Amino acid sequence: MFLKTYINYISLLFLTKEEEKMRIYTVGGFSEVGKNMTVVETGEDAFVFDCGLFLPPIVELEEKEKVYTEKRLRNIGAVPADYMLPAKVKSKVRAIIPSHAHLDHIGAIPYLGYKYKAEVLGTPFTIEVLKKEYDDESIPLRNRLRTVLPNSSYMIQGKHKKYKLDFINITHSTIQTSMLALHTPEGVFLYSNDFKFDNSPILGQKPNYDLLKQVGKEGVKAMVVDSLYSGDDRKTASEKVARSLLEDVMLTTTNEKAGILVTTFSSHIARLKSIVDFGKKLNRQIVFVGRSLNKYVSAAKNVKMCPFSKDIYIASYRRQVEKILKKVNRNRSNYLLVTTGHQGEPHSVLDRIARNQLPFRFNSQDHVIFSSSIIPSEVNIQNRDRLDKKIKKRGVRIFNNVHVSGHAGREDLRDFVDMVNPQHVIPAHAGREKLLPMVELCKEMGYKSGKTVHLMANKKILNI
Ligand SMILES: [Zn+2]
């Protein structure tokens, strides 16, 4: 009798303890580069961090199939597998919190967000881009969108208590990127998915090391961390290095009579600024062509983070595009073209120019500058190969990899772990092969695999 009561007492204790634990659902982005989504459950509340798309299967869709529905995107594996979440967890989600404006972090919110009775919290640029995603796909907005300024906090109302959430400014390849620190009774959950430590950003603020250290002192229980390049022994170079690479290519090569076309990530507002700055030095009229460039540039403009908006002409609709490209074609040495298509995406502006589907035709000795690197998926590699062959046939000079990455390298990650000293580390933003070096790094730093550093995969649960 005594034993039975004792066992009951112990299991009751255990249950109470269990209730208080932090449970982390690694929904997506732990088996591939894309469809990032992590859910943190603590007590009576849960929080969604990121809800993005996996882009390669979308790129592969035929143009006529590009009417997206949740079902179609799910069938091709382009959205996170949030069906893994128990109904009781879904019902207690209090906020959806994208870390930045890249589609692999926000792109699935319009398709999955309605399932959660939760508001979406993001920096002004992130929310502005998200609004445009809803608009583009004509999806009704059913979640409240709320902006939180970089380096400020927001109090999220849980069932019975409030949670402080810090938006810690960090640098990456798009503006207003945040590390997110959720303060819970169990300690801080730090979501640091997509960042580099850039101490000379071209646009926006520097990383907020002070706040990161402060959060570290308070006690980080668990950290999800962008480990994509944890296997690269480097400190990722600053955006000022990319600017300098561009300067060399744009200002010190023989190009007076050439047509010059630059292509880069449409969301990379700092890079676009450098391109515009050098275009002005060349005394050329700067023309942006492509819908996604229009989308991100106007989002940046709306949040007053587009210092070059008066220096450019943007063409995104068919007639506008054809009209301006005719002019550029006749008088190419007066213009600088900035277009979409750096991954060789079919139907992008650069791809259509290469296929002779637009009124601008390449001449021999024209310059095409890829201020980008190939995102290494099979479909991108093939697309770029096809594109490069086509434009080389015309005698075009290609300048490749005029770019630096937006992701931290191994030595940044070492400094970061040291700075915030988390109890548990959860490597993210790639499949097993690219996450393993982060596990190794953490082991070097005294963590124990499976105990304090956790190699996860999609659709797994971690109790800590
Ligand atoms: Zn990103």
Which features would summarize this protein structure in a list?
single chain; about 475 residues; seven-stranded mixed β-sheet; 19 strands; binds zinc ion
Account of the protein in words:
Helix content is 35%, strand content 22%. The chain is α/β, with parallel strands linked by helices and 464 residues long. Strands 6-5-4-3-2-1-19 form a seven-stranded mixed sheet. It has a six-stranded mixed sheet with strand order 7-8-9-10-11-18. Strand 2 (37-42) and strand 3 form a beta hairpin. Helix 9 packs parallel to helix 10 and helix 15 (410-420) crosses helix 16 (432-444). Bound molecules: zinc ion (ZN).
Task: Explain briefly what this protein structure is.
With 464 residues, this protein is an alpha/beta fold. The chain is built from 16 helices and 19 strands. Helix 7 (124-136) packs across helix 11 and helix 15 (410-420) crosses helix 16.
Helix content: 25-40%
Note the beta-strand portion.
15-25%
Record field, number of beta strands: 19
**Overall pLDDT:** 95
Order of strands, main sheet, comes to 6-5-4-3-2-1-19
Radius of gyration: 23 Å
Distinct ligands, ions and cofactors found in the model = zinc ion
Q: Between the first and last Cα atoms, what is the distance in angstroms?
A: 33 Å
Q: How many strands, which pairing sense, and closed or not: the largest β-sheet?
A: 7 strands, mixed
Which class best fits the helix and strand makeup? alpha/beta
Give the overall shape, derived from the CA principal axes.
globular
> How many DSSP helices?
16
List low-pLDDT spans.
Answer: none
